[in-house]
Design goal:
Elements (H helix, E strand, L loop, with lengths): L15 H29 L3 H7 L1 E4 L32 E4 L4 H28 L4 H27 L6 H24 L18
Antiparallel strand pairs: 1-2
Helix pairs in contact: 1-5, 2-4, 3-4, 3-5, 4-5
């Protein structure tokens, strides 16, 4: 926690143990973001966000036509009254929306875990040697994206037309938090800058 109270640029002067610990956290964070994106796809499947969170009718894929061997011999003209009926329309399947209790449980879990996750990554981001405006922009983007992503299921539940909020906020969260993790890790392992005429002290001595 003492490291988090330091000024920007502190990452490069951390001890080797701290760098290894924070690097392990950022790597796990990026993997977690990718797994979350894959999990989202597995949950909603073909129904999409509107079907999963609000319940919606989706078009089921039409069955593949049966492969029949061509009959030998001349073709018969059966006339219009004996023609085979047209293939039935593709059926529409009603997808049941997620229950309110399950959605409350998921939201409850994320309200306790996501803010802590963003807090740690944002602190590492603020310790990187970057312009102050970029520090602020990164924090605003991460907080806004994660907040919108947690609120999106409830917004879609009330307005299925807002289904795009889920993937859009998810991509924004992936990019903002992923950038924080990657940039912080790269900056952490760069050589520490020293004052003119002075040698940079070893990281363990900082």
């Amino acid at each position: 926690m003492r490291d988090f109270a330091a000024a920007a640029g502190r990452l490069r002067s951390l001890s080797l143990g701290a760098k290894l610990l924070y690097t392990a956290f950022t790597v796990a964070s990026v993997i977690g973001l990718l797994v979350s994106w894959r999990l989202y796809g597995a949950m909603v499947q073909d129904a999409g966000s509107a079907g999963y969170y609000a319940g919606a009718a989706v078009v089921a894929p039409a069955p593949a036509p049966a492969q029949t061997a061509p009959a030998e011999g001349p073709a018969l003209d059966l006339g219009p009254e004996l023609e085979l009926p047209a293939a039935p329309e593709t059926p529409r399947v009603l997808v049941e929306q997620i229950s309110e209790r399950k959605l409350l449980e998921v939201t409850h879990f994320h309200l306790f875990s996501v803010p802590v996750y963003v807090l740690i990554l944002a602190h590492l981001w603020l310790l990187a040697r970057l312009p102050s405006w970029l520090h602020t922009a990164g924090v605003v983007a991460a907080v806004a994206a994660s907040g919108l992503h947690m609120a999106a299921p409830w917004l879609i539940r009330g307005a299925p037309g807002a289904a795009a909020l889920m993937p859009v906020s998810g991509v924004a969260m992936l990019l903002s938090l992923g950038a924080m993790a990657v940039v912080s890790t790269v900056d952490m392992w760069l050589p520490r800058r020293s004052r003119r005429g002075e040698a940079a002290p070893p990281a363990d001595a900082a």
